[in-house]
Each structure stands twice: as structure tokens, then as C-alpha cells.
Predict the structure.
Amino acid sequence: MDKLLVQGPCQLNGEVEISSAKNATLPILAATILCPYAVKFVGIPDLMDVGTILKLLQSMGIKVSKHDHEIVIDATQLDNQHADYTLVKTMRASVLVLGPLLARYGQASVSLPGGCAIGARPVDIHLTGLEKMGAHIEIENGYIKAKCNKLKGAVVSFPFPSVGATENIMMAAVLAEGETVIENAAQEPEIDDLADFLMSQGVRIEGAGTSRIVIHGMKLSELKAPSKPYRVIGDRIEAATFIIAGIMGGGEVKVKGFNPSHLQYVLDVLTKMGAKFEIGSDYVLVHQSPRLKGAMIETLPFPGFPTDVQAQMMALMSLVEGNSVVTETIFENRFMHVPEMIRMGAKIQLKGNAALIEGVESLSGAPVMCTDLRASAALILCALVAHGQTEVQRVYHLDRGYEKIDEKLTKLGANIQRVRG
Ligand code: EPZ
């Protein structure tokens, strides 16, 4: 297992180009199951999770050709509608193949994703929605066995605005008979991007990005290949990670290639804390900021504070003046970065789903262990400014969702060495 050796403290300066969003790429690649023709993508990020979903599509007989960041996916023919545990267990987003498989073939056998480090992460909202559309679903030997004659459009009301469930029902609705309305839909920008991808092929969708989405079902033969290669939106979570790195590093960093309006809440909180930056149409330029003040944040579904930036924000808060409070409302176990940060000198107390952070003057390098994707990013941020060497272990967690983050940070002036393990 690779590890990263980070020498701190360092000041970051320069420009960084953000990759396309992992959490938009995964549902969009799953949606190609609906397409009886070849679809070309440009700018697809080189991530472990992207590799996993491409392997999953290929295991169904879908043709995939990849040249650097360009990918052509041809789902004209599929051999099977089976998503095996061996692949699904490494990436729970694989469950996103369920909706498109049911819509196009009326059957699917998809391994239950199982939990992950940050929580149980059930898929009940996905399954209830598909049953509402006429699917018959049973769980057998750890697999979701789903069947239907033809999905029917329905009004699907979610008890919680689940991102994945919204995406699964949207994709299922594309080939359902009639109109599907999703109420209490997730409003994340990645949902909007999935809708844009579907609409580029003639699908009629209203309200994507709002809490009520209407999808008009159509026939397979009515779908048309996009007129030009599709580019996924920039990754707002990676952008937030680099913006926070720029602030903590105390230099001048231009983070470009994403839509800052996708990070409005985060930028508002950082401004209130005293961070100085300029917001452009597709970049944020971080200026040197005085020592920031503490803040109170609570993670919420979009447009609230994103749970995927919670750990990175906590890294920043560990060094501000005064106290901060972070309340995690989305996942039940998303504080695993905390014990590792404490070992670097952070002062954090946990009380249920709340963390009280008392700002300290500095952190010190230490060997730390990655546990999940965003916790890993937070530990890297701490390591950049900690005094001495930090050995960050199990960086495969990081490689799942950040494309060459060590190379990008090195270009900004960080002292990071990857030790192949
Ligand atoms: C997506 O996960 C993202 N992953 C997550 O990013 C992100 O943290 C999450 O949305 C919330 O924004 C991808 O897009 C691939 P949810 P998803 O369904 O779809 C509960 C990262 O770091 N729930 O909105 O799984 C669930 O347990 C990853 O990039 C149910 O109870 O998120 C969780 O507590 C981590 N039943 C909450 O809802 C369901 O059927 C949010 O889940 C579905 C979800």
C-alpha cells in the first residue's frame, strides 16, 4: 500500500486545475447502460472509482475504450445484467447501475453494496422508489434481484433527499412508460449534470437541481447519441479541498476549472471566518489571509454545507483562533479523521454527531492512517502545515477520489513524496 511522506510546514502558491467531478462521473457512466449507441466523453478523471465502474460496465459486455482522459462507451449490446459483489464491494456507487438496467432490460441482479467506513449506507430509498415504478425486488444471498415487465412512471416521494436514489430513479424513469415525478429530490450539482447528460440525448426533464424533478419516459429508439463529446462538471469537492489548502498554506493559490456557485455555502463560511479570495466564473483565487476565526457548521443536503467538505474544514478549524463546532447530520460515522488529527496536536472533542474544535497555534507531523476518502484529504491538509514529517498511510483511499493530488500539491510548493508500497 502506497504512503505519502509530507514535510511541513509549507506555503502554497500557483495555479491548480480541478479535475471533473467523481460524483457526477459515476452516475453518468452508469447512465450509458441506457444508450444503444457509442457515447464519447472527454476530461474523465483518472480515479480508482472511475476504473471500478468501467470494469463493472465491461463485465456486463459493454465496450469501453479509454485513451488518457477520453473514453468511448458503447452499450449497444449487453451480455448480462449482473453487478458482481467482487466489484460492488469496492465501490458502493455501483448500485447506480440498478435503475438503468431495470429500465432497459426489465431485470437486474446487483450485489448489495454493503456499508463502508462512514456508515451503513442502506439503499432502501432506491428500492422503494423502483418498486413504486412497478419493479419486483427481492434480496437473495446478498444480491438485489429486481424484475419488471416495463417500469411505469410514478410519483416517488423521498423521505430523505438521497443523492444516489435521485440518480437511480431519474435513470429508471428515462425508459419508463409515462411521467415520473421525484419529490424531495436531491439538489446537488451532480444531479443537474446527470440531467444535462440525459437531456443531451433527447430526454425531457424539468426541475433538475430543485427538490421536484419531472422525467418524461420515452422509447429506447427515441434516444439519440449526444451531438458532441460530453464533459462532466468540475469537482466542487476537490476544489474546496484545494481552496482550504491554499488558505492553510498562507500563500496565493488560483483554483480553476469548476463552478464556484456549486460551493456558495462553503465560500460564505470561509468569508465569515476571515478568508480572503476573489471569485471568478470558473475559479477562486485565494489570497493570503490573516489568522481565521472559528465557526459553527452543520452538514446538510445541498445547498447546505456539504458533508464531503466536513473533514477538510475541520483541518482548517484546528488552526484558527478560537473555537468551532462541526455537526455531521448526513452520515453516522464521519469523524474518523479526528483521532488522527488529535495525534498531530489538534484539540477536538467529540460528542455524538458534534465535534468541538479548539484552535491551536500549530500541529506536529506524525504517522497517520487514512480511513476514508475525505478523511484522507483532511490529513494531507494537516500534514502540509504541520511541523516535521507526516507519514500518511493507506493512501489508496485518497486515490479513489482525487486525481494525482500529491503531484498537484507538489506543483503548488508542497514537499510530498509518494512511497510505493
Ligand atoms: C453521495 O453518496 C456521494 N457519493 C457521497 O460522496 C456524498 O457524501 C453523499 O452523496 C451525500 O452528499 C456519490 O455521489 C458517488 P445519499 P450517496 O444517498 O448517494 C442515507 C464522497 O466522499 N440513505 O445522499 O450514497 C445514507 O445512509 C462520497 O465522494 C438511506 O438511508 O448519499 C446517508 O446517511 C462519500 N437510504 C444519507 O442517506 C438510502 O436508500 C445520504 O446518502 C440512501 C441513503
